[in-house]
Specification:
Elements lengths: L1 H4 L1 E7 L4 H68 L2 H24 L5 H22 L8 H20 L6 H25 L2 H87 L5 E7 L2 H19 L1
Helix pairs in contact: 2-3, 2-7, 3-4, 4-7, 5-6, 7-8
Length: about 325
Amino acid sequence: MELTLRKSFKIFAPASSLRRRVAISLAVVRLVLVPVIFLAVYYLFEMGVIVDRIVNVDAPVAALAEQASVEMLDARRAERSYFLLRDPQYLQANKESLSHLKTIFERIRGLAPEQDPTQDGLRNVDLYEQQFGAAVSLAETPGSTALERVQEVVRSYEKDLNDLLKQARRKTRVRLVDDLRSQVGSFDTKIVNTVEAGDPTLQRVAPALQASSQQVLNVASELERRGWARVQRDHSDARRLLSRAEWVLSIVSVLTLVLSIWISFILPRQVVKPLVELRDAVDHAASGHYQIDFELRGEGELVDLAKSVRNLIAHVKQAC
């Protein structure tokens, strides 16, 4: 009867120590997480570089270039007002606008040293300043303005506006606004043409001033175009990087999940299976069947525990 009750239990412990198995498990988990963490940090860094370039370089350069155009137009407006009224305050306004314009170009060059047009812009600003200074020295003394010609232009402009408003009922609101904008835009040109027609000084210097100021405006326009083009390009790069990050991280995460699931079955099995066998051996002995054989392989805490259980069962068997 005892022979029929004899049972063999296999206790296999491939690793040398349970502590080492736990350490190996933790090391594997870390190795599994490293690719995900590394890729996430890499893509965040790349995204940060792109956003930093947009916020601190490209967008400010484009905004400063737009401001440069405004300052140049203000300088031209002060120039025309001076030749129209010979008021020294317009000289100061022109000087301040040019000073601001130089500061803007210097700031653009500081933000983006590779911007070649800034040097050309500064050179044309200096040229315009010299030409305007020469024109001022040749201008007539204050007080000798072409007031009669200006008054005639103003009266003609007032008449055109009255005629336009009389026709307002027969026009749509959009058409009326467009006509008003066109009329307002032509007033400055009419004034300048009227003054230049009667002022030999302006006739000599106007083309040169127009050319140098237009060059400055062209440079500012080119800088603005380049700045917003870079913003658009960086935005596209950021979108592509984000899309690639989503795909790569998704693939790596799936592979990591599959690997972690596989590891979660393999490593615990090496610990749980010997414990289950040991529990069955103890239950078998507790039922009064002490004819138990242990097949032990490996070493470590589990094997030591199995040996202790075997000794305990043998001692209980002898006691009985």
